[in-house]
Design goal:
about 100 residues, alpha+beta, Immunoglobulin-like, four-stranded mixed sheet, 1 helix
């Protein structure tokens, strides 16, 4: 039973630390956009590499202006603008549109 618990803990930690393949992606979300599509970055990055943040593509939100991306949907995370470099660590990055 102890071995099973230890194996479970090891597997849990491996999965919670990131993708086991060692390849990560940047995912873009419209965050309330009323039309258009967020950019799609199909590149697979490795930990320690850098990616260039993409623009908003065709996203629009009625009554708002797009101003960049944030790692948190409520804008409490790290803020990035188009063309800025972002370091890829041991996990995929989720960027949410920022609207003003």
């Amino acid at each position: 039973m102890k071995k099973l618990i230890i194996i479970f803990i090891i597997v849990f930690l491996l999965f919670s630390c990131g993708d086991l393949s060692g390849k990560y992606r940047i995912h873009y979300y419209g965050n309330g956009a009323t039309s258009g599509y967020p950019p799609d970055d199909n590149t697979e990055y490795t930990s320690g590499s850098y990616a260039v943040v993409l623009g908003n593509k065709t996203l629009k939100r009625t009554g708002f202006t797009f101003s960049g991306w944030n790692t948190m949907q409520d804008y409490s995370g790290d803020y990035y603008i188009e063309g800025q470099k972002i370091e890829i660590k041991n996990f995929s990055v989720f960027l949410h549109a920022v609207w003003n």
